[in-house]
Amino acid sequence: MTAFSPEVRELLTVIRDALDLPYAATPDGSRERQELRNDNAIRVMSTVSYLLDASHPDIASAATVLREMLDKNPVTYATKAGEGQ
């Protein structure tokens, strides 16, 4: 079995972080979670599209840019685990 390169591993980690959001503690939070997850899915798709369409894609930079986008749009709803807000 071949291990992922560090760049691919980081990209996959960021994608997981974008889509695997903590569950909300309230109904309003559930709506916020769904909106954030949808927004993050769009961010992920943009990143994947760039990587597939670029003649010389930079995986490390793509992972960094995606992580920065996620950091600018964090979970703000109260979660079942007490995270957020």
Architecture overview:
Helix 1 runs parallel beside helix 3 and helix 2 runs antiparallel to helix 3. The protein is built from 3 helices and no strands. The chain is 65% helix and 0% strand. With 85 residues, the chain is mainly α. The chain has a domain of 59 residues.
Radius of gyration: 15 Å
Tally of individual helices: 3
Compute the average pLDDT.
Answer: 95
Strand percent estimate? under 5%
Low-confidence stretches: none
Major pleated sheet: none
Shape: elongated
Task: Report the order of strands and helices.
Answer: HHH
Q: What class, by secondary structure content? A: mainly alpha
Give the number of DSSP strands. Answer: 0
N- and C-termini, Cα separation = 41 Å
Helix content: 55-70%
Salient structural properties:
single chain, 85 residues
List the helices and strands and how they pair.
Blueprint: H1 6-19, H2 27-53, H3 59-72
Quick structural overview:
The protein is mostly helical. The protein has helices spanning 6-19, 27-53, 59-72.
